[in-house]
Amino acid sequence: FTAMEPPPTDIAAVDPALVLLRDPGHPVADAIRGIRTRLAESWTGAPADAQVVALLGADEFCETGPIAANLAAALALGGQSTLLVDAKIDAPSLHLLFGVPLAPRLTRRF
Asked: Nearest CA to 6 among 33, 38, 14?
């Protein structure tokens, strides 16, 4: 979604961890927007294929999903073309945060 389009789901179905959509005035939402701004500034003049963010957890218990989802929402709402991929092959969870059904898995795409 972009600033011109509404989020793809009913906001009530979105997990509370997706603070940027559930409570845009929350201090955490402000912090995520600050990260988005710093990323956008660092990408000034960079080709589109160089504007990539990868979030990796240190182990299987590290929850990067809410951070990735909030950052992707901030980038999209800020006008950046955004693709969010849940590459947790054995336990995808981003669909739960957005309140949407699980789509075909990444491994089936290859």
From this structure: 14
